[in-house]
Structure formats: structure tokens, C-alpha cells
Amino acid sequence: MAVMTLIESVRSTLAGEMRRDDSIVVLGEDVGKKGGVFLATDGLYDEFGGDRVLDTPLSESMIVGVSVGAAVNGLRPVPEIQFADFIFPAFNQILSEAARMRYRSNGAFTCPMTLRAPYGGGVHGALYHSQSVEAFFAHIPGLKVLIPSNPYDARGLLRSAIRDDDPVLFFEHKKMYRSVRGEVPDDDYTIPLGTAKVTREGSDVSVIAYGLMAHYALEAAELLQSEGVSAEVVDVRTLRPLDGATILESVRKTGKVVIVYEDNRFGGFGAEVSAILAEEAFDHLDGPIVRVTGPDVPGVPYNHVLEDWYMPNPERIVDAVRRLAAY
Amino acid sequence: MATKAPSKRRSGGDLGADLGLSRDDLLNMYRLMVEARLVDERMWVLNRAGKIPFVISGQGHEGAQAGLTYPLDRGRDWMIPYYRSVASLLTFGMSAREIMLAQFARGVDPSSGGRQMPGHYGVAERRILSVSSPVATQLLHATGIAWAAKLRKTGQVAMTYIGEGSSNQGDFHEGLNFAGVHRLPVVYVVENNGYAISVPMSLQSAVPDIATRGAGYNMPGVVVDGVDVLGCYRAGKEAVERARKGKGPTLIEAKVTRLTAHSSDDQQQKYRSAEELAAEKGRDPVPLFRDQLRDAGVLDDEADEAITSAARKMVEDATDWAEAQADPDPATAQRYVYGDAPPARMDDPLWAGARFMGDGGPWGVLADEGEG
């Protein structure tokens, strides 16, 4: 079994899927000869050629809109938006077109497309290279939204996404690209979309997170164990459609929950998780629902002191869980 | 890039011969225009009668639509229409019944099963892509369809249609630029009726001809007069052949008139003068093409009457039949959010039922379990 980084998992999975299915095409800014600004598509151009690994103009709406058309006419596009921060010129194509194609045509048209975008802070990217954008998209019926937290999940989820007949947004945390390594089997496994995973079992407090925060939650749980606090970690993995059952089951067991997300606190994805728990696990709660999140400022500021101030980290999660456990 | 004058009237029977059009082709194009007009007029009658809440249609655009669309290969090519495309749709094979189903939003409506407003057409098996309401978005879809056709070597051509108002959207630029770079088999038709709802061309564009913009994408920009049906056919044919041969995209601008208000919710007398509206009636492509065919000896009273009465029967049948179809079942309204998953949560206990999670969330569940 190979040990690889998150980005190597993404890259090798894309290559494997493209070998398996000729209809898969990759398009985006700098994805060709350069192999992407993070090298997520490195080597694909040499192996599959410029038709299937296409450098596009700087036109995000076009990247998505052309993918919608190509998907309708027999291709399986995997467009890349260079940074999630730059996805907004394509928002209309994602919301009004890709997400609604199946519903508005009463099932007659489908839009199989997997849109990849690096997201997240902690990489000195400031306001426009650090954003967490998942809440905008997880709100939209018709989109599937995935965020892997490790190389194994990245491969299994990306495979499922590419093979899925609906538009999928696949967000990859930049800080994890090379900092997170893990075992990735060689076999053709997939991870079903819509399945969360309990990545660490515990009994005192449930920590619900995804992406880099799911990683930090595990680090926090390890630190808490030495204090005698048993934290259970649920990695959401698929934000939409959400595996509510796994989250509810964990919280009904522990009776306490900390929801962690890097995005702005107000109206973030964790707010929906909180609402679900308040509505459906109320009788099981032994304390308030607690969120550890990014603060409500319009972006992650640049200076490292400011960036550290913004970013949730394992220590903050430890602090929240510790206090909730004692509640 | 001057507007071509309507094709010269001929006394012989050779009208259209230089274009490879037979007498039957000419009569067929005329028939499609008449059918489109009568279908269109019926929509407005139904609206005024309170039977359908909304109309958006294409009276005045029929000549351009029939002429430009006629060269497409129905069995192979793609049409990416917009809400005024009534004659284009008929020309590409959509039936009057199918068009009327969209007006009545019935359950068997192939466009959307009654989910979209009238005018938002789409028929998958005819390769007519589903229309949305944001404008110019479909131009990128046509570009992507053409890109896929090129990569897959299907030989298909994509033709898409927008109004001149839509040509000011960013997607217009992004799509034409990409198609120009890759010489894609796509034809962009701008049906310029002079108004984006109420905003006149003078406030929409710094150049009088949208087709001028083709130069910026290294593609021909062709202006045609929308009442010159055969001129439109020629432009469409040349563009389709060019695309088919791998020579790239074409931008065609058809100067048309909008004989109705923008939609059934618009009063165009508020921003267009009575003189202008009266003058525009002289640019109605249906009687002008009729006269052209009569002068050329292609159409006589008997043939005209036969075409018109058949079209009337078709509209009657389509209207009555569509109106008689059932409304969609609300129990199906959650279908097709995804292919294989509930709309928001995998554990949605009311998924695929007539109720949904919005019905009181857990209280609905608790009530069902007798715990509420």
C-alpha cells in the first residue's frame, strides 16, 4: 500500500480515472503543461495530451459553462477553478445551470461534472487565496459538495464524484496538500457520496468537522485523551447530501457536541449541523451546542499574527471540548 | 457588413434555386413561419383568457428563426434555444403539442414537466437543450456542446440563439472567445429586435451592429435582415457548413422586430411610440415572405389557404390536447434533484414522500411516530 500526500492522491486518482474512461477531460487555468499552480494535474498533459488536459483562458464562468455543455454532449469534465476564491464569476453557471439542469428538465438532462477547487487558509494567502466557500454551495439543491481530509478519502471520494452523474464540487484544502500523508490502497475502491465517518471513537463529546478541521479535531482528541477527556470525531466528508444519521448517532451517544469549521461563523455550514442537532437530538443534549469557527471578518488577513488570530486550530478545539465536557 | 437587401423578387420559379432550395423547401419554411405565428398568437389568447399566467414569445422573429435554423441537421445537430425561439423549435422538430405543453405546464411537458415558466423549452431526445431564465448562460453551453462534438468527432454543429440584450453579458464574451480560440463548430445567432425589454440599442451597444464584435474573436460577423428569410437561410447555411468543415464559429446578427411586448407582463407602449410600433408592423416577416413566394409563383391562394388552415387545425389540436393533459403530481416534485440521492440529507425520513423535511422538520417525524 502506497503512502502519499493529499495532492499526490488527487493527481494519481485523476490520472487513473482518465485512463479508465476516455470521456473524462480536465480543463482550467494552467492545468496543462504547468500541471496546475499546486501541481494537482502534473503529468496529465504529457500522458493524455492537450485535448483532454486543456489550458483555458482566464474565464471562470466559461470554464464551468463549457463544462455544462460538454457534460450534456457526452464528456465527463473535471474543471478546476484555480482557487476557490475565484469561483464566484462562475457562480451563476454553477447555481442556475449545473445544479438545476436535471431538476428543471424533469430528469431529461444530466450534468456529470466534478469541479475541483483548492480552498482554505493558513497558507499566507490573505483575503483572496484563503476562503472557505463551501457554505454557498452546500446550500444549493442539485450540487453535491465534498471535502476530503486525508489521501485515502480524497481518492475514494474523487472516484465516486467523477463516476457520479450529478455535478459535484470537490474542495481540497491547500494547507493539507503536502502536509497530510496517508496510506492509499492500490485497489479500485470508492467511498459512497453521502457518508460521514467516525474517525475516532469517544464517549464524552462529539466533534463534527471536515477538511483541515477534521484533521485538527483528531489532533485535539489526542491531546484531550491525556487529560482524561474522550472525544469522538466525525468527519463529515460529504456536506451535501449530508449523512445526518452518523452525526445524530454520535451526538445522541455523547450528549455533547462541538462543531468546527474554518469559514466565517455566521451562517456557516456548521450552523445547519447545529440546527439539525437542535431539532432532532434535543432530548439527548447535555450541554449547549458549541461552535469553533473562523471569526466574522471578510476574509483571512495576511500578516501571520492576524492569520493565526483567524484560523481555528487544535488548541482552540481542545479548549472548547474541555469546557463543554466539564459543563 | 452591410445589411443584405431582401432577395430580389423573381417572376420565375427559380426562387431559392441558387441556395439549393426546392419549391417544397420554400413552402416548408413558409409553413413553419405560419405555424409559429399561430402558435404564438394562441399563447397570448390563452394568457388574456386567464388560462396561462405568462407568455414570452417571438412574433416578428419567425423569418430569421426559420431561415437560420433550416440548414441544421435535425438527426444530428444541437439546438440551444432561448425563450423567443418558437419558430426555431418548430423548424428543428419540436411539435406544436410539445410547445403547448410548456405553456400549460402539464406533467407530460417534455421541457420541464411543468416545473419551468412557459418559454423555457428543451427536449432531450431532439437535442434541444433546456432553457433557463438568466440570459446568455446558454451560449457557454452551446460552446461546450461544440467542444465535446469536436473532441468526440461527432460531426455535430451547435446553433444557439440570444437576443441583443444578452450580447452584453460576460458569458457572451467568454463563450465567443473560447470558441474562437478552438475554432469550434458553433453558430451564434443574435436576434436583434432593438430592445432589451425597454432599453433601446442606443443605450445597449456602442456599435450599431453586434456582429462587429465577431472580429474580436477572429470569427465572421454577419448581419442579415430578419425579414429576408432566404438571406437568413444563406447565412445559416454558410455558417453551418463552415462549422461542419472545422473552419470554426460564426456570429450572425439578424435584425428583427418585436411585434409584441417583451412578455405578457410588459406594456411596450410606455417606451415605444405609436409611430414606431405602426412602422414595425411593416417589418413583419410572415406577410413579407408570403408576398415574396406569391410574386415568385411558388405560392398561390389555394396553397396559402391550405397551409394556413392546416396550421390552424394544428394549433387547435395542440391547444386542446395539451390543456387536457394532467397537472404534475406534487408527490413527484422532489424527484430529479439528484439521480440517486435525497435532496439534502441521506437520512431524510420523508424522502420521496408527498411530505418533505420542511413540514415541521422533526415535528413531522415525531407526529408520524406518535410522539408529537
What topology emerges from the helices and strands here?
The complex is a heterodimer of chains A (327) and B (372).
Chain A: E1 2-5, H1 6-20, E2 24-28, H2 44-48, E3 53-55, H3 60-72, E4 76-80, H4 91-98, H5 101-104, E5 113-119, H6 134-138, E6 144-146, H7 151-163, E7 167-173, E8 181-184, E9 197-200, E10 205-209, H8 212-225, E11 231-235, E12 238-240, H9 244-254, E13 257-264, H10 269-280, E14 290-294, H11 304-310, H12 314-325
Parallel strand pairs in A: 2-3, 2-4, 5-7, 6-7, 10-11, 10-13, 13-14
Antiparallel strand pairs in A: 1-8, 6-12, 9-11
Chain B: H1 23-48, H2 62-69, E1 78-80, H3 86-91, H4 96-104, H5 137-152, E2 158-163, H6 170-182, E3 186-192, E4 195-196, E5 199-200, E6 221-225, H7 229-244, E7 250-255, H8 274-281, H9 285-295, H10 301-324, H11 362-368
Parallel strand pairs in B: 1-2, 2-3, 3-7, 6-7
Antiparallel strand pairs in B: 4-5
Helix pairs in contact in B: 1-2, 1-4, 1-9, 1-10, 2-7, 4-10, 5-6
Structural features:
heterodimer; A: 327 residues; alpha/beta; Rossmann fold; 2 domains; five-stranded mixed sheet; four-stranded mixed sheet; 36% helix; B: 372 residues; five-stranded parallel sheet; two-stranded antiparallel sheet; 11 helices; 7 strands; globular; disordered N terminus
Explain this structure.
- The complex is a heterodimer of chains A (327) and B (372).
- Chain A is α/β, with parallel strands linked by helices.
- Chain A is 36% helix and 21% strand.
- Chain A has 2 domains: 2-184, Thiamin diphosphate (ThDP)-binding fold, Pyr/PP domains (Rossmann fold); 197-325, 3-Layer(aba) Sandwich (Rossmann fold), CATH 3.40.50.
- Chain A has 12 helices and 14 strands.
- Chain A is globular, with a radius of gyration of 19 Å.
- With 372 residues, chain B is an alpha/beta fold.
- Chain B folds into 2 domains: 17-324, Thiamin diphosphate (ThDP)-binding fold, Pyr/PP domains (Rossmann fold); 338-372, no CATH class.
- Chain B contains 11 helices and 7 strands.
- Chain B has helices spanning 23-48, 62-69, 86-91, 96-104, 137-152, 170-182, 229-244, 274-281, 285-295, 301-324, 362-368; strands at residues 78-80, 158-163, 186-192, 195-196, 199-200, 221-225, 250-255.
- In chain B, the strands form 2 sheets. A 5-stranded parallel β-sheet of chain B has the order 1-2-3-7-6, with helices on both faces. A two-stranded antiparallel ribbon of chain B has the order 4-5.
- In chain B, a hairpin with a 2-residue loop joins β4 and β5 (199-200).
- Chain B starts with 22 loop residues before the first helix and ends with a helix.
- Chains A and B meet through α3, α4, α5, α9 and α10 of A and α5 and α6 of B.
